[in-house]
């Protein structure tokens, strides 16, 4: 018996099948890449046009509906306090603290990321909450040298995520108690 010669459609179907098979193999290998180091969880947020992140371990919660009560005689970067389930938490304008401008309250309440360490809890007001990502610790680069000295204390590193540079905020520098000599 004679095999029929392949038609144009059969050749095209074979090429499509081969292309799809190669793509599937490629995708399978992307997930297999081994990470040799420790993964670091980061919560992304936007301030103006720039993206930043804090380590997930420093985040207690994200708060969206709140009313700030102003407190006199506090630094300009402290917007006031909010009541979160009976706990009074300071609200920090992180953009002002880092020298990136000032938070301008709008008609919609901006999201706040509540961060904490063993001494201090504060809610940092941000323009937008992004994703939570995990990056290999070895992919975190030192902060860019172009960051001016005022901001340098607040950035501990940077990482590229979706072709965008993300500055990693030093939560311990933000969480310094007011009036301390740290």
How many domains, in number, for the residues?
Answer: 1
Helical fraction equals 10-25%
- Main-sheet strand order equals 8-1-2-10-9
What is the CATH fold-level name? OB fold (Dihydrolipoamide Acetyltransferase, E2P)
Q: List SSEs in N-to-C order.
A: HEEEEEHEEEHEEH
Q: Would you count the extended β strands for me?
A: 10
> Architecture in CATH?
Beta Barrel
What is the CATH class designation?
A: Mainly Beta
DSSP helical segment count? 4
Characteristic terms for this protein:
4 helices, alpha+beta, disordered N terminus, elongated, 182 residues, OB fold (Dihydrolipoamide Acetyltransferase, E2P), five-stranded mixed sheet
Strand and helix layout:
Blueprint lengths: L7 H25 L6 E9 L2 E6 L3 E5 L14 E7 L2 E6 L1 H4 L14 E5 L4 E5 L2 E9 L12 H4 L2 E7 L2 E6 L1 H4 L8
Parallel strand pairs: 2-10, 5-7
Antiparallel strand pairs: 1-2, 1-8, 3-6, 4-5, 6-7, 9-10
């Amino acid at each position: 018996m004679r095999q029929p010669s392949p038609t144009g459609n059969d050749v095209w179907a074979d090429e499509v099948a081969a292309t799809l098979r190669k793509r599937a193999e490629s995708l399978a290998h992307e997930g297999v890449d081994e990470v040799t180091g420790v993964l670091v969880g980061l919560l992304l947020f936007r301030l103006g046009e720039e993206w930043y992140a804090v380590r997930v371990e420093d985040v207690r919660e994200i708060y969206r509906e709140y009313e700030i009560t102003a407190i006199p005689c506090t630094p300009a970067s402290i917007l006031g306090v909010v009541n979160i389930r009976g706990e009074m938490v300071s609200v920090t304008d992180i953009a002002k603290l880092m020298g990136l401008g000032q938070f301008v309250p709008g008609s919609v309440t901006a999201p706040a990321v509540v961060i904490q360490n063993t001494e201090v809890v504060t809610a940092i007001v941000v323009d937008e909450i992004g994703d939570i990502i995990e990056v290999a610790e070895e992919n975190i680069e030192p902060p860019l040298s172009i960051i001016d000295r005022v901001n340098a204390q607040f950035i501990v590193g940077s990482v590229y995520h979706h072709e965008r540079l993300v500055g990693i905020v030093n939560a311990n520098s933000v969480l310094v108690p007011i009036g301390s000599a740290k």
